[in-house]
Write a structure and sequence with these properties.
heterodimer; A: alpha+beta; Alpha-Beta Plaits; eight-stranded mixed beta sheet; about 20% helix; elongated; B: alpha/beta; Transcription Regulator spoIIAA; six-stranded mixed beta sheet; 21 helices; 19 strands; about 35% helix
């Protein structure tokens, strides 16, 4: 059995597909593409799929991935990519099909690009002045207090055309996932930022040493 | 990327994926290449609308023309409606996200009377004037189709043109006429005159309705030369000439029925007297098994669905059903596709059917005896017997089923409390049958669910004449049913009688209801079919304000020779037949299915000959 990693974008319309819905969308898209993937055995056979570090609803990404299995020993990766890319919904582009080098558990960081209106600069300045930025994070074991300043001491923005851009590097992965929505919630509550004005785009998933997850 | 206002709205609502479009199979065209834009509007939620086969058929059909573009629009759920109002986002179509006002035709499908207020809400949210008379050429043409058109008189003042019957041939003709009219720049009135000449097209404003002093209808008279006195529904004579849709838009946010669907036949031979669909879609016409198998395979390949349902009003009446299932078996198994038969009848459910449909996945067993005693089943012409129910349940239990869901109706004509007790008794007998079965699954109990709806008398059926039970009568019957059930293995669900009452008023209503519907909508009534939104008191209050007696519509016996609001709308079934069937019902006499013997309903004239080749044995 060979494991194959399908890399895709999730932007525009597709950013509004929840993980639960995405599983079904992928299931059907893979089926439409006709690629020979492996089905789980049992009474309710379905395509085996694992998503690495799924994204919250409404955020966009250039680096999503899902692993499938196949009984093929040699997988025509580029043929698969083309077949899959043709059958995806708007906003999902299949960028690469690869043989995985790392397990999804190895993901330690993620990089995000934030785009906001120029008026958001005052809120960002207010954040940068703060000593601490404590927020409650829901975890499997209840709520945990986190100081966002530990991970994000300062937010540097850059003006591009009519908007502000900022890059966030945050820890990611099982148990230690810090999503930008935590920061946005804090900003909305304490720094006067309208969180719905901000677009979030995930641009990279990284390993412990901050090289690309592959 | 999206308009920032839309983005803001999407960030605040539940399941935003319902409002974005972009699903696999959705059609995006270049506006510059398009001569005619059609907005197919489903006046209920995305989840409900995306389950509807009719939309898929017409979407594919219209979009096959390179210069026409058919898009979809749905009623936004409460949170989204509120956001759209707050941010001034008009009702838009999912494909282009353009507002309804830029479309040439805005078409609503009328599947359910309680979606009428949603039509007003969708028009209003788009900034389109509600009344047809207030819209000139600058507004889209507002049209409607679907089963409720057989008496959509309560909303006749809002709609420019309605389409009776089957849309596959008629709708393209309507679109071509509108496209031509656009080129010529003719007036709306002239366009409506041209449309009135198309088979099944009904322009309400071309008819005057007068009333007697007692409130009943005096006359329905055409006021335009082009308008026929009676409008005859459009029909496809041979279903094999109509291509099945093989490219569904596949919803990404859970539709109610999220699966591939193949329409194996249209119409129904059974003639259950309460069932409007059983009369307005006559005669029954089936498609060849070979054609169905090919379309099913293409559809599954194009959509990636893991389940295909063979849909129709009564799928087991297809004369080649076993052949079709055999043909589908090899590829469905290979592709991990399960087959479901949603509308089986108890009387021809066989072992091989169970086996063929459960090879991949087991689906639940659901039947509709509709009434609890044989006498009442004969009254409604649901020709099934306890012996058949017994046989079927035994088969199902042998095959490993442990739950059975039974559909019944309450408030049927001639019904007594004995018939209500019969519902509980039927369920109890099924429970006992299970425990008496030596082949039942080991160590597992049985669950019998009774689902009870309130009977709503519908136009164009033999029961159109009968009054609906009052709310109080229905409530008493519901209580009686609950008291008659003594087993924990039996679960009872019943439908709220309040919505059924409004459904009856609209179903048999006339044009005088339009201002009431508008006023109720203005007071915040919409999504009336949803229990959590239905505002019963507001409706009652509004009827009172307009001095309208709801009992006149819902709880009054219509004389057999009375002129009804729908008497100018012809679905092929003669008035004489409906009267005949009504009289037989009162005597608990049954009528044979049409593929066994012709009962001369008149619908054969639509085909220009006999509906069936009676030399073949078509009944199984």
């Amino acid at each position: 059995m060979t494991t194959v990693r399908i890399w895709f974008t999730k932007t525009g319309e597709a950013s509004y597909i929840s993980l639960l819905d995405l599983q079904r969308v992928m299931q059907r898209s893979i089926k439409r593409s006709g690629i020979p993937v492996w089905y789980t055995m049992g009474f309710n056979p379905h395509i085996y799929m694992t998503f690495a570090n799924p994204l919250p609803l409404g955020q966009e990404s250039l680096v999503e991935s899902v692993d499938v299995k196949t009984e093929l020993e040699k997988v025509p990766l580029e043929d698969w990519r083309q077949a899959l890319d043709q059958v995806m919904p708007l906003g999902i582009k299949v960028t690469r099909v690869t043989l995985p080098q790392y397990k999804a558990e190895k993901i330690s960081f993620a990089r995000y690009q934030l785009r906001m209106p120029l008026s958001a600069q005052t809120s960002v300045d207010a954040y940068n002045q703060l000593e601490t930025a404590v927020i409650l994070k829901k975890t499997k074991r209840g709520h945990k207090e986190i100081d966002l300043k530990q991970a994000l001491p300062r937010i540097e923005t850059e003006q591009k055309e009519n908007e502000l851009q900022a890059e966030l590097l945050l820890t990611a992965g099982e148990g230690n996932n810090l999503n930008p929505s935590l920061w946005l919630n804090f900003m909305q509550e304490h720094c006067g930022l309208n969180a719905t004005d901000v677009s979030v785009l995930r641009t990279a998933l990284l390993l412990e040493d901050q090289t690309d997850f592959r | 990327m999206f308009d920032p206002k839309l983005k803001e709205a999407l960030a605040r609502v539940q399941k935003p994926g319902r409002y974005t479009g972009g699903e696999p199979g959705c059609i995006i065209k270049n506006k510059e290449d398009v001569d005619l834009r059609f907005a197919f509007c489903f006046p209920d939620t995305y989840e409900v609308g995306m389950s509807f086969l009719g939309m898929k058929i017409l979407y594919e059909l219209l979009n096959e023309r390179p210069n026409w573009w058919c898009e979809r629009a749905f009623m936004p759920w409460l949170d989204m409606k509120q956001e759209m109002e707050r941010l001034h986002i008009p009702t838009y179509a999912l494909e282009s996200k353009d507002p309804l006002t830029v479309f040439d035709i805005v078409g609503f499908t009328l599947q359910y009377e309680l979606s009428y207020t949603n039509i007003l809400a969708m028009l209003d949210l788009a900034g389109i004037p509600l009344y047809s008379k207030d819209r000139d050429e600058s507004w889209p043409l507002i049209v409607a189709g679907g089963p409720c058109v057989c008496n959509a008189e309560p909303i006749a003042d809002f709609i420019d043109m309605m389409m009776l019957g089957e849309g596959e041939l008629q709708l393209p003709e309507v679109c071509a006429t509108v496209e031509q009219a656009k080129k010529e720049g003719i007036s709306k009135k002239e366009l409506l005159r041209r449309l009135a000449k198309i088979g099944g097209c009904y322009v309400p404003s071309f008819y005057d309705v007068t009333y007697k002093e007692d409130g009943r209808i005096q006359a329905i008279t055409p006021n335009e030369e082009c308008a026929p006195a009676v409008i005859h529904k459009a029909i496809i004579k041979d279903m094999n000439t109509q291509k099945l849709p093989t490219n569904f838009v596949v919803p990404m946010v859970g539709a109610v029925h999220d699966r591939a669907q193949i329409e194996v036949l249209r119409g129904c031979v059974r003639g259950c007297r309460f069932c409007q669909a059983g009369f307005i879609y006559r005669p029954m016409r089936q498609r060849d098994a070979e054609l169905l198998n090919r379309a099913a395979q293409d559809l599954c390949a194009n959509t990636g669905y893991e389940e295909i349902s063979l849909t129709s009003l009564s799928t087991s009446d297809h004369s080649q059903l076993e052949t079709l299932l055999d043909d589908m078996a090899p590829w469905t198994e290979k592709e991990h596709v399960s087959i479901s038969l949603p509308s089986l009848r108890i009387d021809n459910f066989t072992e091989s059917l169970i086996e063929k449909t459960t090879k991949v996945r087991k689906s639940g067993l659901t039947f509709a005896p509709e009434a609890g005693t044989q006498r009442l089943r004969d009254v409604i012409n649901k020709n099934i017997t306890w012996e058949e129910i017994e046989k079927t349940c035994t088969l199902a239990f042998n095959a490993g089923y442990t739950s059975v869901k039974l559909y019944f109706m309450m408030g049927l004509p001639t019904e007594t409390l004995e018939d209500i007790e019969g519902i509980a008794k039927t369920a109890q007998q099924i429970v006992e049958l299970y425990y008496a079965n030596p082949n039942k699954p080991k160590g597992r109990g049985v669950q019998v669910t009774i689902s009870c709806a309130c009977f709503v008398p519908k136009p164009h059926t033999p029961f159109q004449f009968v009054p609906q039970d009052t709310e109080q009568m229905l409530r008493e019957k519901q209580q009686h049913l609950l008291h008659s059930v003594h087993s924990k293995k039996i679960h009872v669900n019943y439908h709220d009688s309040k919505t059924s009452f409004l459904e009856a008023v609209f179903a048999k209503g006339d044009r005088r209801l339009a201002p009431v519907i508008e006023a109720a909508y203005r007071k915040g009534c919409f999504f009336d079919g949803w229990d959590e939104c239905f505002q019963y008191d507001t409706w009652l209050e509004t009827f009172r304000e307009f001095n309208m007696d709801t009992a006149f519509y819902a709880n009054r016996f219509i004389e057999l020779d009375e002129l009804t609001p729908w008497s100018h709308l012809d679905y092929g079934v003669s008035h004489e037949f409906l009267v005949r069937e009504y009289k037989k019902a009162t005597m608990a006499q049954t009528t044979q299915p049409c593929n066994r013997v012709c009962s001369a309903c008149g619908a054969n004239k639509l085909l220009g000959g006999a509906c069936f080749d009676y030399s073949k044995d078509l009944v199984h």
